[in-house]
Amino acid sequence: MGARLATALSVVVLAAGGIGHAVVTSLDTGIGRVDAFKDMKNRPAAGHGTNILLVGTDGRDKVTPADKARYRLGGAPCNCTDTIMLAHVSEDRKRVSVVSLPRDSYAELPEHTDATTGERHDGHPVKLNAAYAEGGANLTVRTVERMTGVKIDHYLEVDFTSFMRTVDAIGGVRVCTAKPMKDAYTGLDLPAGTHTLDGGRALQYVRSRHVDGGSDLERMRRQQRFVAAFIDRAAGSGALLNPVRFRQVLDAMAGSVRADQGFGTDEMLALARTMRGLTTASSEFTSVPVGRTGVRIEGIGSTVNWDAERAQELFAAIREDRPLTGKAAEEEAGRTLVDVAPSRIRVQVYNGTSVSGLGARADAALRATGFDTTRTPRNADRRDAAHTLVLYDPRWDRSVKSLAAALPGARLRAVEGQGPLMKVTVGADFTEVRPVRAEAPAGADPAGGGKAVTGDRVVCP
């Protein structure tokens, strides 16, 4: 559901097309208002840049019965946050950093008045997503500030309806997956490959929890990919420059989005005018580093514990307006997405030509993109190979696809009983090794072990 937060995030970029103050004013009047900062005291000190808390709720009141059935949206909503993200816009307006906060994070609520019953409560432990049910936007902001030490400047909240309509208004969003994805609970059914999802299918994609090993952390990683793809689509589809499409986006958001009272038209435009150059490469994504998952707390259930030291480092970077990504993450951008990680594939290289050192160059290039080469290339029995050939055991048919992606044009030949070792005979047609990367394995942190990634790394190549 976190991808529906792309709707909220898009508010700050919608005006970048220069449509004008009057048009954006219509969006302002259609947005619901909430006093997210009422009577807040002892708040963290303000940092540099702008921090926006993006909250997705499971509201489905305006979803039609047909869509509820089609996209498996039955059941009563929990009146809680399905997803929480912290978006930081740098002071120079050249970078957006998005941090996912696991909804099952162990949290301790400050004392508060229950939003439903009016009963006064002392502080007590909960899962983070329960803060909204007990105290709405205000308690959610207070809890996040208390956990992160980051002062929240603005609050945006969206629901299922807004998400689906906005995705449809920009013409759908393109996603890619290296392996089939199925979830009987949401109805998601995507074969491997690239797909342009409409609003309903996109909602299935971001809500599914029973794929990728069934982990909510994996779902967050998928949501982050969708947010990046949404930004890419919104910026590249012309939706922000076409008045008709732009109006459709505004209409989709109106009535299903709530914001704090201080985030009005002037604030949106001021922010948007400085973000005209926003691209997937200038956005970065990560999640709170996790220490332990599945920690059971009596009366609460299974929770996620943050890695306190690493989380402090992450939020210090947000407060100090420092980028979360580095050179290593930038180098990953543009790599071909494969199913099996190259580090899990053992390769022996042979030189099938008379060109001295060609085997060594191929071995080094494969190793540089992550393959586990033997580092001892050999000469083949024949030195007149015209084409690069890969011999593989058919039991490792998924692994050979990763290797083939790195060796464009190579011919594949199955050899029964060869075992896991891939044998590459470099031919005269060898020109390059194409860099490849795999999706994070099931159970991994959404951004690769707590490291941030730029948006151009997670969108389809």
Protein architecture, described:
With 461 residues, this protein is an alpha/beta fold. It is built from 14 helices and 26 strands. The chain has helices at residues 5-14, 21-30, 65-70, 130-148, 160-169, 199-207, 216-236, 243-253, 265-273, 308-319, 327-332, 358-368, 397-406, 455-458; strands spanning 32-34, 50-57, 81-89, 96-101, 106-109, 112-113, 120-121, 124-127, 154-158, 173-177, 181-183, 188-190, 193-197, 257-260, 283-287, 290-297, 301-306, 336-338, 346-351, 372-373, 378-379, 389-392, 411-414, 422-426, 436-438, 453-454. The strands form eight sheets. The chain has an eight-stranded mixed β-sheet with strand order 1-14-9-2-3-4-15-26, sandwiched between helices. A hairpin with a 4-residue loop joins strand 11 (181-183) and strand 12. The chain is elongated. Residues 1-19 and 440-449 have low confidence and may be disordered.
